[in-house]
Structures are given as C-alpha cells and as structure tokens.
Design brief:
Strand order of the largest sheet: 1-2
Radius of gyration: 14 Å
Strand content: 25-35%
Order of helices and strands: EHEHEEEEH
Number of strands: 6
Structural class: alpha+beta
Oligomer: single chain
Largest sheet: 2 strands, parallel
Distance between the termini: 10 Å
Length: 92
C-alpha cells in the first residue's frame, strides 16, 4: 500500500517501550518521545495520568517529511487500522 516505514510513538522511556513491544509482539518499532520534544513541537494531543503525560491515540500519515493526513480522534480504537488501510487504498 506504499507504506515504507511504520512506527509507534510514545512518551515512555525506551526500556519500557522495548518491553512493551516484545510483550505485545509488535511488528514495528516504537519511537520514544520521553522528553516530549516532538509532542510539543507539533502539538500532539496528550492527557495526564498517574503523574505521566501520555499521547492520545492518533495516526499520522507522513509523506516526504510532511504530515499528509491525521486520524484523530481514534474511535473506536479497534477500527483505526481498517480506517487507515481504506484511506491508503483510496490513494493513487
């Protein structure tokens, strides 16, 4: 479908992300924004819980270094992957 790279992004530290990715058998890497640099720079939606700042669920489609499409809010979450696939399939 033209996807060259797929990443997750979270605000947890790399050790937590690595453990999570292994436990969940994720087929993609998770990038760390532990210090919220990207989150703040592009104003990603967040929420606070238990003293942590976490990202709200969203999907960014990035093409040639530019955000081409944003899926947000993600609801229901279990439908997001099929929504993204349908969107990608509609593109030439």
């Amino acid at each position: 479908m033209g996807v060259n790279r797929l990443f997750g992004l979270s605000t947890q530290d790399p050790d937590y992300q690595h453990e999570f990715a292994q436990r969940m058998h994720l087929p993609f890497a998770i990038l760390s924004d532990e210090h919220l640099a990207l989150t703040r720079a592009i104003r990603l939606p967040t929420f606070e819980t238990s003293g942590m700042t976490l990202l709200k669920r969203l999907t960014l489609v990035i093409h040639d270094g530019k955000i081409e499409h944003v899926f947000y809010p993600v609801f229901p979450p279990d439908r997001n992957a099929s929504d993204v696939v349908a969107w990608l399939a509609s593109k030439p």
